[in-house]
Write a structure and sequence with these properties.
single chain, mainly alpha, three-stranded mixed β-sheet, two-stranded antiparallel sheet, 7 helices
């Protein structure tokens, strides 16, 4: 990934690298990627030491597109290294461009929000976009209040779900007709109920 998260935590690649470190994967093993940018989109100087460490342990690395195999024997072959570097560099540049564009968009959104103009983003199910701001949908607000009143009274999510379905209350949180455990749970965790926007930093 662009930030190297695929090599950290519970990511699958992180698990593979951990197995290499413990010796469970080593000489005679191969790791195959669809494309090198699936291995990483970080800058090359952050990626190559990891690759070199794998090769030095006898692990063979291969990509399907382009068809390329890195081995402990060809790790110093300039032509092979260039073929390996190019997809990673291009992937890094593409990811950085997207990241910068997204940051610029959020900067503009925040500036717009500070002027008092509401942004036409995805509305919570109990609101509607009225062109310049959000207005409550009265019948949906009643449902939201009912869910929270049940929760405040100590009613569990499963029982709330059963109560709403038994009463034929319209499902605000899902595509189906009936309320489910996840839809009730999401509504109770939704910070939009407190008036918070899903747009970070706004």
């Amino acid at each position: 990934g662009f930030h190297g998260r695929n090599r950290k935590g519970k990511a699958k690649l992180a698990d593979v690298l951990a197995r290499v470190e413990t010796g469970k994967i080593g000489k005679g093993h191969s790791i195959v990627f669809e494309n090198w940018d699936r291995f990483s989109r970080q800058p090359f100087d952050a990626v190559y030491p990891v690759v070199l460490g794998l090769l030095n342990r006898g692990v063979v690395l291969a990509s399907i597109s382009p068809e390329l195999i890195l081995t402990p024997q060809n790790k110093n072959d300039l032509q092979v290294i260039f073929s390996f570097v190019l997809p990673i560099v291009l992937g890094n540049l593409e990811s950085k461009k997207k990241s910068d564009r997204l940051k610029d968009n959020w900067t503009n959104f925040r500036k717009t929000a500070k002027t008092g103009v509401m942004l036409p983003c995805r509305c919570p199910s109990w609101l509607r976009w009225a062109g310049t701001g959000y207005l409550p949908i009265a019948e949906h607000v009643v449902i939201v209040r009912q869910v929270y009143q049940l929760a405040l009274a100590g009613t569990g999510i499963k029982q709330i779900m059963k109560t709403l379905n038994r009463q034929g209350v319209k499902n605000l949180g899902g595509r189906g007709k009936n309320w489910t455990h996840p839809t009730v749970g999401r509504l109770l965790r939704d910070k939009a109920v407190l008036g918070e926007s899903g747009a970070a930093g706004i």
